[in-house]
Design brief:
By secondary structure, this protein is an alpha/beta fold. The protein contains 19 helices and 15 strands. The chain is globular and about 65 Å long.
Length: 583
């Protein structure tokens, strides 16, 4: 079986990973599968786009005509799957609607052709080292994948990753999911960056009382699914909302949001975890990030004064904010590198998200599945330029140190710590999965990246952006793992319990007394699926760091204070080592 080491990873992939993991310009920020979007866009795979020769509208095999609340749509047929691209669920949120709750789309009379992919939401894209705003504001649309004979099938709604700054609905196409999991699949586009999240005081009033606009978009899309998915063969009373990375964190936020009450029946968070931001801290950081625009436009003489002016709740500030072009607004939405301070969002404003965040007693209590890779931090930490300043032996030890502890923090953040916190107020079953494939303890190693952020994606779709890292297609063990995982997934979306037809080992629920995690791995030929206790606490990991002598104190301190700091998972670490705040 062919494996790819760092020397064989394409330059495009490496550049995208570096910018996504802490650089100042990004094509994707958080979601690694979005992080290689530039490469994906130039080499579209046949499973989503078809050949170049078949790309014209005249040559596309048309699907059935389906009815929606706003008009009829007709998509395309590919490999026996009907796909409807870019069905509107909301009106273009531009102009006076830029920072408002989404409105219904305009109805249409003629059958709308939705056989071609739509443009992605406006975002900052980096190509050949240059960053520019690309995409459209008219992004409130979704893709639906189904079959001609589908009827009352379980529905999966997918929210893409990208730190809520980048990405698009094509992150995980639904062709394989429809076939393997006997489902109707919906993937959603939504507002990104400062168009999707902005809580400056001038934008908030009694009528528009939240800055979580992207979350309002997602709620709108889920309502569309409830209202329309039966016409596409889906069961509107059996909807599983799912998401990866930022999408997974959005799903976790939905679980504590009254805005999402009654909009879904099950939830899956892939590499998600619990993240919210404080409103006042977010306002100050957003004003600081937008200050250079205000100085450029003559609203203040310096950035400090501009930030103070932008924090004022006045019509003058509001009018100015609405006057900024989408392109300029997007230009300041630079890579956050899984740091909330780099792009504040998911505001605990007591409107969409409770003020006490995940300590809230309000929950949308549905069966929940949470998944993580065992090497989640490699994309974000182990490619840091700092390591190139070290000698070879020291570099190897430093990278291993960063992978071991950063990934331990990140994996338990995505699953174990969320489960422990939810358990207090949650009555529904919680299931936890961990993918070890590729990691340091696996029989199948993936050089440098290990069981990375997104390791599960090739199990759901053959069309993915990871071919430059590893040859998943010819890895028999990985493909066997995919079959076994999809058997559990199919059961979960159908009944809320992953056990049933095709499941190998019994997947027991996670509880405070029985910290069960289903661990997926494989060698060259076959998968292993075992229920294990892989629980740790942040305090456990910090204690291990203190005792670790594989790196010098200088290297250890640099990694802790400059590479692991300020991340989703690092609050306890930062407090223990007295790391300066990035806020």
């Amino acid at each position: 079986m062919k494996r790819f080491g760092m020397s064989m990873v394409s330059a495009v992939v490496v550049a995208a990973m570096l910018t996504g993991c802490g650089g100042t310009t990004v094509n994707s920020v958080e979601s690694s599968s979005s992080a290689v979007e530039t490469e994906a866009e130039t080499t579209e795979s046949a499973s989503t786009a078809g050949s170049e020769e078949a790309s014209t509208e005249a040559e596309v095999e048309k699907s059935s005509v389906r009815n929606t609340k706003y008009g009829e749509v007709q998509g395309a047929v590919q490999d026996g799957v009907e796909v409807y691209y870019g069905i509107p669920y909301g009106k273009d949120p531009s102009g006076e609607l830029r920072w408002k709750a989404p409105e219904d789309p305009e109805s249409w009379q003629e059958t709308k052709d939705v056989s071609q992919k739509e443009d992605m939401a406006m975002q900052l894209v980096t190509t050949d080292g240059e960053s520019k705003a690309e995409g459209t504001t008219d992004c409130l649309n979704l893709d639906v994948y189904t079959t001609s004979d589908a009827e009352k099938k379980p529905v999966i709604v997918y929210v893409h990753g990208g730190n809520n700054q980048t990405g698009n609905a094509q992150e995980i196409p639904g062709f394989d999911v429809v076939k393997n999991d006997d489902a109707v699949y919906v993937s959603v586009n939504y507002r990104l960056g400062f168009q999707g999240f902005n809580c400056l005081p001038a934008l908030i009033d009694d009528e528009n009382n939240t800055g979580n606009f992207a979350m309002l978009d997602l709620a709108k899309s889920l309502q569309w699914v409830r209202d329309n998915i039966e016409n596409f063969g889906g069961d509107p009373e059996n909807v599983t909302v799912s998401g990866f990375s930022a999408g997974g964190r959005d799903v976790m936020a939905m679980l504590i949001s009254p805005t999402f009450e009654g909009l879904f029946d099950k939830a899956i968070a892939y590499s998600g975890g619990m993240t919210v931001s404080n409103v006042e801290d977010s306002q100050k950081k957003i004003a600081e990030m937008m200050a250079p625009l205000a100085v450029e436009d003559g609203k203040a003489e310096d950035e400090e004064s501009a930030a103070e002016w932008l924090l004022q709740d006045t019509e003058e500030v509001k009018d100015y904010l609405y006057s900024i072009s989408e392109e300029r607004l997007t230009s300041i939405s630079v890579g956050a590198g899984i740091r909330m301070s780099g792009f504040p969002h998911l505001y605990a404003d007591d409107v969409v998200i409770p003020k006490d965040g995940f300590d809230s007693k309000y929950v949308n209590d549905v069966p929940l599945l949470m998944l993580t890779g065992s090497s989640e931090f490699t994309f974000f930490g182990c490619t840091d330029p700092y390591f190139d300043t070290l000698k070879d032996d020291e570099k190897s030890a430093a990278v291993a140190f960063t992978d071991k502890y950063g990934s331990d923090f990140y994996r338990i953040f995505n699953t174990q710590l969320s489960a422990a916190r939810m358990d207090k107020n949650y009555n529904s079953d919680m299931y936890i999965a961990q993918i070890n494939y590729g990691g340091r303890d696996s029989a199948s190693k993936i050089d440098l990246f290990g069981a990375f952020h997104g390791i599960f994606v090739p199990m759901l779709t053959h069309d993915n952006n990871y071919a430059g890292i590893y040859d998943f297609e010819s890895a028999a063990g990985y493909q066997d793992m995919a079959v076994k995982f999809n058997a559990y997934l199919k059961n979960f979306i159908s009944t809320g319990d992953p056990n049933g037809d095709g499941s190998e080992a019994e997947w027991k629920t996670w509880t405070e007394d029985s910290k069960n995690t289903m661990v997926f791995d494989a060698d060259d030929t076959a998968a292993t699926v075992e229920l294990k206790d892989v629980y740790k606490t942040n305090e456990d990991i910090i204690s291990e760091i203190e005792k670790d002598d594989t790196v010098s104190d200088d290297v250890k301190n640099y990694i802790v204070q400059n590479i692991m700091n300020g991340r989703w998972f690092s609050a306890d670490l930062d407090e223990h080592f007295n790391t300066p705040s990035l806020w």
